[in-house]
Design a protein that fits this description.
Blueprint (H helix, E strand, L loop, with lengths): L1 H10 L12 H11 L6 E3 L6 H14 L1 E6 L4 H15 L2 E6 L2 E5 L12
Parallel strand pairs: 1-2
Antiparallel strand pairs: 2-4, 3-4
Helix pairs in contact: 1-2
Length: 116
């Protein structure tokens, strides 16, 4: 896992970086790693359904770091959708630019997996 390697390198100087939740430096690293990724899940006119949540969860289990593209809606509705996705999948929002959001969820099952 990319950010764990960086944390190990930096943690000798900054002991506060060894926390499980991502901090500012880790989020920056994850944003850099996600830059080249294409959206894994597209959310269309039906919105956030149970099947969409299952697909996002499955993608997070396989990749840890994913991008999601949401159909253009009003900003208030988009913010509500993002919060719902994060709560239902227990993922952390890394970035939200326009209609594309990047989510991260640490895979506990496979700790040797690389972020892809």
């Amino acid at each position: 896992m990319l950010w764990l390697k960086i944390v190990k390198v930096i943690s000798s100087k900054h002991s506060e970086l060894t926390k499980v939740s991502t901090n500012r430096i880790q989020k920056k690293t994850l944003r850099q790693a996600a830059h080249h990724l294409d959206p894994t899940v597209w959310i269309g006119k039906n919105g956030i359904t149970e099947n969409v949540i299952k697909e996002i969860t499955h993608a997070l289990d396989r990749h840890e770091l994913i991008k999601i593209k949401i159909l253009q809606v009003e900003k208030k509705e988009r913010v509500i959708n993002i919060k719902k996705i994060c709560m239902d999948t227990n993922a952390e929002l890394i970035s939200n630019i326009g209609n594309v959001l990047t989510l991260y969820k640490k895979n506990i099952k496979n700790t040797n997996q690389k972020i892809s």
